[in-house]
């Protein structure tokens, strides 16, 4: 079985049912970009936010159209097609059209600069680039410098002279499935690492991995045909797409919301009757802050159908979930751990039945195994810190064109994650930190996540990141970059006093008040902070006694 089989089944059995809704509160209705001849439905209420719908049959037909377009242009099995689009109704049909043609889909981060786009196009040997109007200014300077890319397809209005109108071209292509037989062990997709440790690496997966992520997600969150999944994070990332795979497997509706304001999220949950919402930590914090400050009135929304809130992509502060449960006591909660190298979320998950273990990332997910190892690859004793390794059908094939990096993390069937973790007496795994983020100060190992979790309990702190700064005597010291909640003030003395309850060696030796940068999947961009505050220079920090 391959991933496209699920789409074709849904189109056959429930073709007229709505599968995707796009909601864009920040756009005017007449700026819509639609697939021609698909009769996409806008809301009849002119006062409502901009909204489009797509049925399972239309989804499958448009994927077939794009697939047939690629084949008509001479693309072959294994050709690479990159996607550089914002979340929209066009995104997933393009993705599935690539797969149906036997090609390899290459989703790209919408935050990439021109240089990063070129780097990734070259690294993945991309043959075709599909891009939208938001990226024209970044593609313009690359046109004469991306020799490997044979074709550029544009999705939107005002098509650049160097690209072809994808929406127009597909209207002349057949809606029938292309005559391409796919196998589960064939290459399917290249995803890029988040780049939190440098330039991104290209991660190669096959169809078997994509299918396994469907099975894992649906097993964990029990999606049925009646569920409605609210998807906010970017579809280029494995996390968002693989959580949506639960909707694909169950044949249920999903809503793509283009915006993260708390009132937009709650209004969309209310109007679209969403039952499952995947949030990142900052968005959950913003929702709670807006409710607690009175900026958002929960009585204005219909939220009784919302059954599950889950979080992934980053460590989750237990204090955040305690706050969430006090506001939404009837919500089931889950946290999911995964990497793009392990096909996104789910290789480890908490489980909705284990909310008493909030703070842990959980146990091995459905179809997965885990172990915690020392630097020699031997399993550590329970309770000891080691590197988390995972094994399952979603482990990547390799880092494309990077044998050395592949060999560092792939050991037989096991993927070494680079995350430091420990297991408690009940077998639940707790993340300690990224292996490369561990701070060694005066011979002591400091794990930033532990310090960050402590600091987030402070009532004035909205977000925090702890990094190591060079120090002439101790080697490194822990520095806390602290983002204060809106309309609040805080002093360094207040933070130092709050940290009295931390063991002396764990207390931050430098306090910096600044905004904490996060990437689109919610991970703290610590390389950005290191570059900003280290710059290769030793920091003469005043160490508090």
Task: Characterize the structure shown.
This protein has 545 residues and is of the alpha/beta class. Among the domains are: 3-221, ANL, N-terminal domain (Rossmann fold), CATH 3.40.50; 438-533, GMP Synthetase, Chain A, domain 3 (2-Layer Sandwich), CATH 3.30.300. The chain is built from 15 helices and 27 strands. The longest helix is centred in the first third of the chain and has 17 residues, at 56-72. The radius of gyration is 24 Å and the shape is globular. The model is unreliable at 28-49 and 536-545 (pLDDT under 50).
Low-confidence stretches: 28-49, 536-545
- CATH uppermost class of the domain at 3-221: Alpha Beta
Broad shape: globular
Structural class: alpha/beta
Rg over CA atoms: 24 Å
Q: What's the overall average pLDDT, rounded?
A: 88
Query: Numbering strands along the chain, what is their spatial order in the largest sheet?
Result: 2-1-11-10-12-13-14-15-16
Number of helices: 15
């Amino acid at each position: 079985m391959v991933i496209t089989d699920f789409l074709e089944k849904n189109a056959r059995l429930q073709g007229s049912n709505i599968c995707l809704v796009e909601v864009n509160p920040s756009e005017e209705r007449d700026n819509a970009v639609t697939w021609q001849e698909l009769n996409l439905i806008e809301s009849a209420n002119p006062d409502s936010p901009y909204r489009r719908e797509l049925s399972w049959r239309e989804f499958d037909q448009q994927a077939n159209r794009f697939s047939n377009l690629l084949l008509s242009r001479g693309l072959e099995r294994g050709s690479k097609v990159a996607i550089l689009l914002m979340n929209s109704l066009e995104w997933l049909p393009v993705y599935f059209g690539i797969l149906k043609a036997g090609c390899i889909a290459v989703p790209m981060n919408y935050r990439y600069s021109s240089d990063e786009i070129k780097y990734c196009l070259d690294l993945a040997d991309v043959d075709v680039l599909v891009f939208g109007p938001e990226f024209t200014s970044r593609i313009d300077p690359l046109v004469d410098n991306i020799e490997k890319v044979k074709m550029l397809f544009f999705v939107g209005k005002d098509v650049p002279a160097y690209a072809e109108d994808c929406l127009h071209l597909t209207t002349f292509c057949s809606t029938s499935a292309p005559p391409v037989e796919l196998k589960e062990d064939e290459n399917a997709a290249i995803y890029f690492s988040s780049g939190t440790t440098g330039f991104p690496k290209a991660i190669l997966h096959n169809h078997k991995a994509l299918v396994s992520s469907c099975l894992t997600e649906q097993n964990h969150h029990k999606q049925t045909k009646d569920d409605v999944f609210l998807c906010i994070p970017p579809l280029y990332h494995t996390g968002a797409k693989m959580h949506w795979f639960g909707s694909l497997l169950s044949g249920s509706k999903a809503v793509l919301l283009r915006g993260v304001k708390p009132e937009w999220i709650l209004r969309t949950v209310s109007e679209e009757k969403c039952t499952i919402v995947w949030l990142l930590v900052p968005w959950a914090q913003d929702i709670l802050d807006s409710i607690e400050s009175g900026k958002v009135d929960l009585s204005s929304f219909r939220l009784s159908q919302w059954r599950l809130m889950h979080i992934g992509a980053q460590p989750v502060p237990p204090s955040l979930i305690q706050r969430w449960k006090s506001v939404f006591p009837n919500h089931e909660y889950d946290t999911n751990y995964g990497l793009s190298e392990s096909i996104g979320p789910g290789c480890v998950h908490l489980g909705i039945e284990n909310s008493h273990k909030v703070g842990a990332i959980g146990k091995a997910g459905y179809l997965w195994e885990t172990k915690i190892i020392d630097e020699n690859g031997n399993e550590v004793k329970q309770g000891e810190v080691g590197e988390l390794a995972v094994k399952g059908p979603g482990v990547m094939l390799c880092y494309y064109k990077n044998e050395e990096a592949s060999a560092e993390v792939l050991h037989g069937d096991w993927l070494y994650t680079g995350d430091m973790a420990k297991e408690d007496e009940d077998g639940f795994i707790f993340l300690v930190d990224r292996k490369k983020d561990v701070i060694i100060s005066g011979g002591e190992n400091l794990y930033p996540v532990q310090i960050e979790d402590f600091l987030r309990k402070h009532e004035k702190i909205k977000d925090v990141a702890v990094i190591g700064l060079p120090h002439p005597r101790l080697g490194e010291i822990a520095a806390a970059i602290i983002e204060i909640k809106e309309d609040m003030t805080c002093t360094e003395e207040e933070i130092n006093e709050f940290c009295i309850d931390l063991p002396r060696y764990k207390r931050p030796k430098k306090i910096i008040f600044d905004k904490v940068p996060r990437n689109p999947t919610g991970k703290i961009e610590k390389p950005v902070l290191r570059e900003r505050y280290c710059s290769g220079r030793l920091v003469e920090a005043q160490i508090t006694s």
